[in-house]
Amino acid sequence: MSIKLGDTAPDFHAETSLGDIKFHEFLGNSWGILFSHPADYTPVCTTELGYTSKLKSEFDKRETKVIALSVDGVEDHQNWIKDINETQHTDVQFPIIADKDRRISELYDFIHPNASVTATVRSLLIIDPDKKVRLIITYPASTGRNFNEILRVLDSLQLVDSHKVATPVNWETGDDVIVPPAISTEDARKIFPKGVTEVKPYLRYTPQPNT
Q1: Rounded distance between C-alpha atoms, residue 29 and residue 128, angstroms
Q2: 192 catalytic, yes or no?
Q3: Which residue range forms the structural domain that includes residue 69?
């Protein structure tokens, strides 16, 4: 199965390091991040999950729940979490899915046979409160993800959903945003009271709306 942007994230029941879950129930009305890692007790994954744990307050501010997955079992997850906490100086509180039969990995296309026939790649999905997939990003096993970028995308998606804007290259919270082409400059000046700067008829900027 190939999941694309705008698709409904498939629901599933799974064992995790924190007990059984139903995925959609777990997400509730929150945003969600589901990310796979190749294996427990591996160095890059240890740093990734440790850093993700340290971002808990940032995800909480964005009303976002995080859940990880690998093809290892619950006992391995629980014991590995102790190593993550020790070496990364954190306290992992989000669940890690145990997917020993690879059922969920195959449902979400997390196994890429030309990379590995058994281990999951570093895929990550952002899922909105309507359970729609809004971001899909995949890294090779050798490269750790940039979770600061994940936060940036979350901020962009939540801003775009709240206001009729788009975000330009390298946008960070507080930067000017872009007026979408579907909105005329005349209408934009009514919609965005902070002003509109027209560089080209198709390239207009406005200060970030209040969130």
Answers
A1: 8
A2: no
A3: 7-145
